[in-house]
């Protein structure tokens, strides 16, 4: 089905090859998982298979690439035999409704109208999409990914390629996707999945191929999966093959319609309990008042209540995870805390009510797309921008601590994704913000970076800040969360 | 999260599933009709003496808003037009000053824009980019225009969303306010545009890669799931527009 023979590829803008002597043979009907540390060439390997390399990205290609027995000559040709699902489904949608999105490829490939209608009807029923009547952009992440998978296979390609499809999915979304993959496999599709999270693929994959520096270094068949210990995977920089067992962090003191029930300390009148922060400020009774308190917080958008929290306390000096299914209001809560979202009710910091404009000056957000928050032309000036004077001289130390030493003169947009993220964190630290919010910081991050990310958050918390972590990533939550605020739909 | 359980044995794959419905499409105008009405209204109203056709365009805009159930627009359109008309024609009678005269001229232009805007709003709200593209293809518009038009329509909301995110990020870094904008206008524009371009380019890359792989702009002549077809709604709309235009011409010659 796919043959890559001694393939070398360098992107035009980069000196080092992204793929360097890659040999890979994927047989018809097989499900192959490509994994490896960040930057090991997983996405580039997929791009070789769907022709985006070299027909969309510029660079230098050597070696032999054959897809369904043919060399890749143009994108539309390979597009007929492949379906591609990217990390962000929202970004790949071309229309704003389920049926038009499913019809898109068939229309472009010149399929007769009646056939398109029949096939779209089949896929809608097959993927359980009939109840998704709203606009695509208003669906939850899991629902969007389901539509993206359906849209990738409507033209019945024999080969489906998925690039980190779970990066933005909740555990429920991942369970749904696993079902879809199993179903595609049943239908006889060949699947190639580039992924960091491996646990959900344990029962789906026929083979796991580990890439390092752009070449296949190791390979395990499904018969060998049971023998793969966590230690072996850790050595390869890979995440666990077993579903992460979340012991769950103690819940914060909170109640209200948006707060998921559980062993809620507010109901029992208990305060914050001990977490992972070693001797963190939140563990001491005197720290009860410090941090962010929410009182009667309510957020209504277009007549729908998005968030309704009667009372909650997010302690300073600790990492509070905000969790819950896609679309439950986690990002809205982050925007409320940062003063970017109108709401009713009060938000207090260390016992003092804080107006929205004041909260904007006390909060930093590390966004999922960090490019949106890099404003200047060098790392050094990025750190100076908005830094409080007494912290400005610490710039060099902070850069060093975050592994950015020696990069002071580089343009922020020339850094890697991980470096950009750490730069934004450094800027937040130097600006002395009391509330620092991390919004899905681990999408597309390997095991090693997961730990460094946790270290960074821990350091920010130890500096006395209220650290809020919005994440679906069970691995990261298990490592980092001291407390948890679990949300549920408000109505 | 809604349930899907496509595991072996539980998936239902009907031999011939129901064809997706298009509840809005049947009741609304064919995109070609809507585009022709919009173009005709724009050209007529913006031409010298075009102000005579403003009432007719407003009636068309009002009827279109009612037909799609956009009652707020149906109410707002005559109100906005009435206000603009009052500033254009009544205010200069009450207050004689050059400043008021300037306002009156500006309000005159606003009045024309409101009249055309009512029709444009209907087009934007009821005709999705794929329907518009299919209709333009049926009207034999070359693909170089239909493809680039479709991409543009698709990308505008992305840029708006990215711009909002960048503006939020600026506010959190203390770069947002009006004061900062006035103190350092060039720098403020740079702070806004550089991240906007970086993040929009990234989004554009995913979108174009996905669209090209799904055959957008390929050599094959595209088809449409629902080929555009003229219906009763188009006949009614055409007749109403003709009647209003004729009435306007008669009214004008009578004066």
Automatic annotation (TrEMBL), chain A:
<keyword id="KW-1278">Translocase</keyword>
<dbReference type="InterPro" id="IPR015856">
    <property type="entry name" value="ABC_transpr_CbiO/EcfA_su"/>
</dbReference>
<keyword id="KW-0472">Membrane</keyword>
<keyword id="KW-0067">ATP-binding</keyword>
<keyword id="KW-0547">Nucleotide-binding</keyword>
<dbReference type="InterPro" id="IPR050095">
    <property type="entry name" value="ECF_ABC_transporter_ATP-bd"/>
</dbReference>
<feature type="domain" description="ABC transporter">
    <location>
        <begin position="292"/>
        <end position="490"/>
    </location>
</feature>
<dbReference type="Pfam" id="PF00005">
    <property type="entry name" value="ABC_tran"/>
</dbReference>
<comment type="function">
    <text>Probably part of an ABC transporter complex. Responsible for energy coupling to the transport system.</text>
</comment>
<dbReference type="InterPro" id="IPR027417">
    <property type="entry name" value="P-loop_NTPase"/>
</dbReference>
<dbReference type="InterPro" id="IPR003593">
    <property type="entry name" value="AAA+_ATPase"/>
</dbReference>
<feature type="region of interest" description="Disordered">
    <location>
        <begin position="242"/>
        <end position="289"/>
    </location>
</feature>
<keyword id="KW-1003">Cell membrane</keyword>
<feature type="compositionally biased region" description="Gly residues">
    <location>
        <begin position="268"/>
        <end position="278"/>
    </location>
</feature>
<protein>
    <submittedName>
        <fullName>ABC transporter ATP-binding protein</fullName>
    </submittedName>
</protein>
<comment type="similarity">
    <text>Belongs to the ABC transporter superfamily.</text>
</comment>
<keyword id="KW-0813">Transport</keyword>
<feature type="domain" description="ABC transporter">
    <location>
        <begin position="2"/>
        <end position="238"/>
    </location>
</feature>
<dbReference type="GO" id="GO:0005524">
    <property type="term" value="F:ATP binding"/>
</dbReference>
<dbReference type="InterPro" id="IPR003439">
    <property type="entry name" value="ABC_transporter-like_ATP-bd"/>
</dbReference>
<keyword id="KW-0677">Repeat</keyword>
TrEMBL record, chain B:
<feature type="transmembrane region" description="Helical">
    <location>
        <begin position="101"/>
        <end position="124"/>
    </location>
</feature>
<dbReference type="Pfam" id="PF02361">
    <property type="entry name" value="CbiQ"/>
</dbReference>
<dbReference type="InterPro" id="IPR003339">
    <property type="entry name" value="ABC/ECF_trnsptr_transmembrane"/>
</dbReference>
<dbReference type="InterPro" id="IPR051611">
    <property type="entry name" value="ECF_transporter_component"/>
</dbReference>
<keyword id="KW-0472">Membrane</keyword>
<keyword id="KW-0812">Transmembrane</keyword>
<feature type="transmembrane region" description="Helical">
    <location>
        <begin position="74"/>
        <end position="95"/>
    </location>
</feature>
<feature type="transmembrane region" description="Helical">
    <location>
        <begin position="34"/>
        <end position="67"/>
    </location>
</feature>
<keyword id="KW-1003">Cell membrane</keyword>
<feature type="transmembrane region" description="Helical">
    <location>
        <begin position="230"/>
        <end position="251"/>
    </location>
</feature>
<protein>
    <submittedName>
        <fullName>Cobalt ABC transporter permease</fullName>
    </submittedName>
</protein>
<keyword id="KW-1133">Transmembrane helix</keyword>
């Amino acid at each position: 089905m796919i043959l890559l023979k001694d393939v070398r590829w360098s992107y035009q803008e980069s000196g080092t090859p992204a793929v360097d002597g890659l040999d890979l043979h994927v047989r018809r009907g097989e499900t192959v998982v490509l994994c490896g540390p960040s930057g090991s060439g997983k996405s580039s390997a997929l791009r070789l298979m769907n022709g985006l390399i070299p027909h969309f990205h510029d660079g230098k290609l050597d070696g032999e690439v054959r897809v369904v027995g043919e060399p890749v000559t143009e994108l539309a040709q390979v597009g007929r035999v492949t379906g591609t699902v990217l990390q962000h489904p929202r970004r790949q949608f071309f229309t704003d409704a389920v049926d038009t999105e499913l019809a898109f490829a068939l229309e472009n490939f010149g399929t007769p109208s009646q056939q398109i209608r029949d096939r779209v009807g089949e896929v809608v029923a097959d993927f359980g999409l009939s109840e998704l009547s709203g606009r695509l952009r208003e669906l939850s992440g899991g629902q969007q990914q389901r539509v993206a998978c359906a849209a990738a296979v409507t033209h019945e390609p024999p080969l489906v390629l998925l690039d980190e499809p779970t990066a933005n999915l909740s555990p429920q979304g991942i369970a749904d996707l696993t079902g879809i993959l199993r179903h595609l496999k049943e239908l006889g599709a060949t699947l190639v999945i580039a992924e960091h999270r491996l646990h959900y693929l344990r029962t789906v994959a026929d083979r796991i191929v580990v890439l390092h520096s752009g070449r296949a270094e190791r390979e395990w068949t499904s018969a060998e999966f049971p023998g793969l210990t966590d230690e072996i995977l850790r050595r390869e920089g890979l995440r666990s093959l077993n579903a992460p067992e979340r012991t769950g962090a103690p819940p914060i003191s909170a109640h209200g319609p948006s707060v998921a029930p559980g062993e809620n300390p507010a109901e029992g009148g208990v305060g914050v309990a001990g977490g992972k922060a070693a001797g963190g400020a939140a563990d001491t009774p005197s720290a009860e008042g410090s941090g962010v308190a929410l009182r009667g917080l309510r957020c209504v958008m277009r007549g729908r209540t998005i968030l309704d929290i009667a009372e909650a306390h997010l302690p300073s000096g600790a990492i509070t995870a905000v969790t819950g299914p896609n679309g439950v209001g986690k990002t809205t809560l982050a925007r409320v805390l940062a003063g970017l979202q109108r709401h009713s009710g009060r938000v207090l910091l260390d016992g003092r009510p804080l107006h929205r404009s004041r909260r904007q000056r006390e909060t930093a957000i590390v966004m999922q797309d960090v490019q949106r928050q890099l404003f200047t032309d060098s790392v050094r000036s990025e750190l100076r921008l908005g830094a409080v004077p007494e912290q400005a001289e610490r710039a060099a130390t902070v850069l060093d601590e975050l592994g950015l030493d020696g990069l002071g003169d580089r343009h922020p947009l020339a850094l890697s994704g991980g470096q950009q993220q750490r730069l934004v964190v450094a800027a937040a630290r130097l600006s002395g913000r009391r509330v620092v919010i991390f919004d899905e910081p681990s999408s597309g991050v390997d095991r090693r970076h997961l730990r460094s990310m946790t270290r960074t958050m821990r350091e920010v918390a130890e500096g006395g800040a209220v650290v809020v972590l919005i994440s679906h990533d069970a691995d990261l939550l298990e490592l980092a969360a001291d407390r948890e605020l679990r949300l549920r739909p408000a109505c | 999260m809604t349930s899907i359980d496509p595991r072996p044995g539980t998936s239902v794959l009907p031999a011939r599933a129901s064809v997706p419905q298009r509840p809005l499409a049947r009741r609304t105008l064919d995109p070609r009709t809507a585009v022709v009405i919009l173009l005709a209204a724009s050209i007529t109203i913006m031409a010298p003496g075009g102000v005579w056709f403003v009432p007719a365009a407003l009636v068309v805009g009002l009827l279109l808003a009612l037909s799609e159930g956009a009652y707020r627009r149906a109410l707002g359109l005559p109100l906005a037009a009435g206000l603009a008309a009052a500033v254009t024609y009544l205010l200069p009678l009450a207050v004689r000053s050059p400043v008021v005269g300037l306002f009156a001229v500006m309000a005159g232009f606003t009045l024309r824009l409101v009249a055309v805007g009512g029709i444009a709003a209907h087009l934007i709200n009821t005709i999705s980019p794929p329907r518009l593209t299919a209709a333009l293809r049926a009207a034999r518009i070359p693909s170089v225009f239909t493809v680039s038009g479709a991409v543009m329509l698709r990308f505008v909301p992305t840029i708006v969303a990215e711009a909002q995110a960048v503006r939020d990020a600026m506010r959190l870094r203390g770069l947002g306010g009006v004061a900062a904008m006035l103190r350092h206008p060039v720098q403020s524009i740079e702070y806004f545009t550089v991240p906007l371009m970086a993040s929009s380019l990234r989004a554009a890359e995913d979108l174009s890669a996905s669209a090209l792989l799904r055959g957008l702009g390929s050599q094959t002549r595209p088809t449409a799931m629902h080929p555009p077809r003229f219906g009763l709604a188009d006949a009614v709309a055409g007749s109403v527009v003709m009647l209003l235009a004729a009435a306007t011409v008669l009214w004008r010659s009578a004066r």
